[in-house]
Write a structure and sequence with these properties.
By secondary structure, this protein is of the alpha+beta class. It has 27 helices and 34 strands. It starts with a strand and ends in a 15-residue tail after the last helix.
Length: 893
């Protein structure tokens, strides 16, 4: 028997059916070990020695794999055909060697681009060894990301409180978003006018022509700048006679685009289907790993992490046959089409994303697929088959017209096009990404128009317009830009965007990315003091070096040495950096955000409360805010606007009087602080304050609402059993009712003001019946997914903070937006494995474990000889004579 190792249980199940009883296919559940998030995982002063850690769940997986290999005839490592897949195979083999179960057994690496029986069997028949340069490139990337994250993040925390972290690719992607926001802030709208005439041919057919020339010269786009010029030109056209000068009709061909890469699939799925990048990859993963079609599990698409645009020769042949059968012989061009990528630093070793079988049309698999799966498969199938179809043939007609009014002349133009042969458009019509310019100015089909004939004016149109600022990036357009610049790789795009969102550096609203205040602060800081490391060219050049490592052209350790030398020096320089230097730089870099223009035209840097103090960024425990230089005499503060609503922040720069509290006689005021708007009663340090609840807007606050809010907590009545008071209030975790030390959550802030005694008693009783905290018994079961391979049921539950997957003591939150009812067993196993990997091993087990077992437990460390050598080097480095690299601080990315 041979053992085959793959990443996922779904993939294992499918491949096991293809290989039969002579093979045992096991899943590693992705990476089996990683660099621990703590000091010393990568040691620059020891030639970048790396220490790896195996989490609890992976240790169990590796034990199962090791037990199987011990009794096997050989080992096949069949992880994904990319750099990460190669690394997983290397990690698995290294751990098995340490467990001494390999011996003289043959070990082979097999790769396949599609999970079909033919692709898998062909790969098994043509194995190879692990690609060492690919592994080296992975090690270099992992070390670089660690060194940047775990050295730059502590600098941020010391010099810019409230910042979460910085990353090598993440920070550059964030800079793109922030730079676009700065462009929008600097943008000044320009006025322009469009003029056109509705004209009629002698045969009575109407069409529209646009003004393109006047005053003896051709007008540039948006060439009419003001209403005065527009009025003069409109008067000219109103009194003009019109003659057709030329009519030119010429054939135009439109060629299809290549099959999808990872980034173009994410872009098309965003614009056509409204999918996020992460959603696209989740659905594509399932289509790749396999769908059960009438009793047989088959992978429907090829591997979906690629920047190659070419299809395999056999796939091209199959596509051409399918085109002839499904569309007709005319739709199949004489010769196959071949494509090359224009993306910077792209690697074309892998195929583009395509269907594994072009004869398997979307209609044929419709009944086997869920909604999102079908929609994405249809997109991939149509784009793949269209890439080999004939060009669309069009006829483009351009009509130039002269308008004459006495001695004045003007030129108009009408453009139209007709599709003579739809070609590839019969299969796939590309949807342009938001903000992209149109390829032409086609206005549809024109009527019959002949040269030198006279036209009759029906109407002259004149419309005012203003230029628009550049659009904010969407996930799709940001990925496109990153690909153009050579930043990141196909496997990193979705993860990078998720990191920016999770760390609250950006928000995604209506599919647009808006940088938050903390994201802009981080970017401004890095641009001011770590300029080189957020430059687009520098990051792309580093990616190119990683590619050369994978091709065996560069030594990975030398790349790390060169990087670390400069990076360490830059980090070292920040030790002398004063907070005042940081604030001065940020005040200038973020002036539009920190000092928004005021309606009255006054200096936005002068405090409106005291009138003499200068406003500036201040750094507090929870981040940055704007404060007055006259503190503590003037205690004005303002939270940084995170969504561009400077007007709201400015409006609250002075306390807004709302009336007196009838019980105390003290004044109620609406104010803005570093944590947002709040209500205050009275003055001084003892004044009572209450922040506005989520969803309450400052402009909606009146005396009644302020009085209700400042009066919390509210007494509801005495409990009928205990005789103790029940109260309702607003706390850190939202609205609640409280009785005798027991808190029970309420659904909304409105409930705090309206809940009566009977309902409060019921809510408290429900809470007590569920027991303390958020226990498993208190959560509602939404869906049962069967038993875990290690025993015990897997259940999807609804909890206090949203739906999650539960297995034993492991609770894994579902991704945002994931429908609990759509969760499959494979989804759940992956989430559980990821969550379990982040949980610490129980201390009691660690104490009881025998020495031999402890060696194979959660942590894989360097060998004893390497550790001794490491200690010796550390002592040497600590001496005054030799300057050592700094310790990597105990931080997280």
């Amino acid at each position: 028997m041979n053992v085959v190792v793959v990443e996922s249980p779904a993939k294992a199940k499918t491949i096991n059916k293809y290989l039969g009883p002579g093979y045992k296919v096991l899943a590693s559940f992705g990476h089996v070990r990683d660099l621990p998030a703590k000091d010393g995982s990568v040691l620059p002063d020891q030639d970048f020695e790396m220490t790896w850690e195996v989490d609890t769940a992976s240790a169990k997986r590796m034990k199962d794999i090791a037990d199987a290999v011990k009794n096997s005839d050989g080992l096949f490592l069949a992880t994904d055909p990319d750099r990460e897949g190669e690394a997983i195979s290397w990690h698995v083999l290294d751990l098995l060697k340490k467990k001494k179960v390999i011996g003289d057994k043959p070990v082979k690496r097999v790769v396949f681009n599609a999970i079909t029986k033919k692709a898998v069997l062909d790969a098994m028949a043509n194995p190879r060894d692990i690609d060492t340069p690919l592994v080296d490139a992975y090690l270099a990337r992992r070390a670089l990301d660690y060194l940047v994250g775990f050295n730059l993040s502590p600098v941020l925390w010391r010099k810019l409180p409230g910042a979460r972290s910085a990353g090598r690719v993440q920070s550059v992607a964030l800079r793109l978003v922030c730079d676009r926001e700065s462009e929008i802030e600097r943008f000044v709208a320009e006025e322009y006018w469009n003029l056109s005439a509705l004209l009629k041919t002698p045969r009575g057919d109407e069409f529209e022509a646009r003004l393109v020339a006047a005053d003896g010269k051709r007008l540039q786009a948006r060439g009419v700048k003001n209403g005065e010029d527009a009025g003069r030109l409109k008067a000219l056209l109103e009194g003009a006679s019109y003659t057709v000068e030329t009519v030119e009709a010429k054939p135009v061909k439109r060629n299809p685009g290549p099959p999808f890469t990872t980034s173009t699939l994410q872009q098309a799925a965003s614009s056509n289907l409204g999918f996020s990048a992460s959603r696209t990859m989740q659905v594509a993963q399932k289509l790749y790993e396999g769908i059960e079609l009438g009793g047989e599990t088959v992978g429907l698409i090829t591997y979906m992490r690629t920047d190659g645009v070419q299809m395999a020769p056999e796939a091209i042949d199959a596509a051409r046959v399918a085109i002839g059968e499904q569309f007709g012989a005319r739709y199949c061009p004489e010769k196959p089409r071949f494509y090359s990528t224009k993306a910077k630093n792209a690697q074309e070793a892998h195929e583009a994303i395509r269907p594994t079988d072009f004869n398997r049309s979307p209609d044929q698999v419709r009944r086997f697929l869920e909604g999102d799966q079908l929609r994405l498969y249809e997109l991939i199938w149509k784009r793949g088959i269209a890439s080999q179809m004939a060009s669309a043939e069009m006829e483009r007609t351009t009509v130039d017209i002269e308008a004459s009014n006495g001695t004045e002349r003007a030129g108009l133009r009408a453009v139209g096009s007709v599709v003579r042969f739809d070609g590839f458009l019969a299969a796939y019509v590309d949807q342009r990404e938001e903000g992209d310019a149109a390829e032409d100015d086609d206005d549809g089909r024109l009527p019959e128009i002949n040269a030198r004939e006279k036209l009759v004016k029906s109407k002259v149109n004149s419309s005012q317009h203003f230029t628009e600022p550049p659009p904010r990036y969407s996930e799709a357009s940001l990925i496109k830009k990153m690909e153009e610049l050579g930043i990141g790789r196909p496997s990193t795009y979705a993860a990078t965007l998720k990191t920016l969102s999770d760390r609250e550096y950006v928000t995604i609203d209506k599919r647009k990315l808006t940088p938050q205040a903390k994201g802009r602060l981080v970017t401004a800081f890095l641009e001011s003091f770590f300029t080189k490391y957020v430059e687009y060219d520098f990051t792309a050049d580093l990616e190119e070096k990683l590619d050369k490592i994978s091709a065996g052209e560069l030594d990975w350790k030398q790349v790390l040495r060169d990087f670390w030398k400069d990076f360490f020096g830059q980090i070292d320089e920040t030790k002398e950096l004063r907070v005042t230097n940081v604030l001065d730089a940020l005040n200038e870099a973020l002036a539009p955000l920190v000092f928004p223009k005021r309606d009255d035209g006054s200096d936005p840097r002068i405090c409106q409360v005291c009138g003499t103090g200068n406003l500036s960024l201040k750094l507090g425990k929870y981040g940055a805010f704007v404060g007055c230089s006259n503190y503590p005499e003037c205690n004005f503060t303002r939270q940084l606007s995170s969504d561009g609503s400077e007007a709201e922040a400015s409006a609250l720069s002075e306390p807004k009087a709302l009336g007196a509290d009838p019980h105390t006689g003290e004044e109620l005021t609406l104010r803005s602080g570093r944590f947002g708007p709040y209500i205050q009663r009275g003055d001084g340090k003892e004044a009572k304050r209450s922040s506005l609840p989520k969803g309450w807007k400052p402009e909606d606050i009146d005396h009644e609402k302020a009085l209700a809010l400042i009066g919390l907590p509210r007494d509801i009545g005495k409990h009928p059993e205990s005789g103790k008071m029940i109260s309702a209030g607003l706390g850190r975790y939202g609205p609640f009712v409280l009785h005798d030390g027991t808190y029970a959550n309420l659904e909304s802030i409105e409930d705090v003001f309206s809940i009566g005694l009977n309902r409060a008693v019921t809510v408290l009783a429900d809470k007590q019946s569920k027991g303390p905290g958020r226990g498993r018994n208190a959560a509602v079961a939404l869906k049962e997914l069967g038993d875990h391979p290690d025993g015990g049921p897997i259940v999807v539950r609804e909890g206090k903070y949203g739906p999650y997957v539960n297995w034993g003591k492991v609770n894994a939150t579902l991704p945002k937006g994931k429908d609990p009812q759509s969760v499959t067993a494979e989804d759940a196993l992956a989430l559980i494995a990821e969550k379990a990997g982040k949980m610490p091993a129980p201390k009691t087990k660690a104490k009881k474990a025998p020495a031999k077992a402890a060696t194979a437990a959660a942590r894989t460390t360097v060998t004893k000889a390497a550790a001794t050598k490491s200690a010796a080097k550390t002592k040497t480095a600590a001496k005054p004579k030799a300057k050592a690299a700094p310790k990597v601080k105990k931080t997280g990315t």
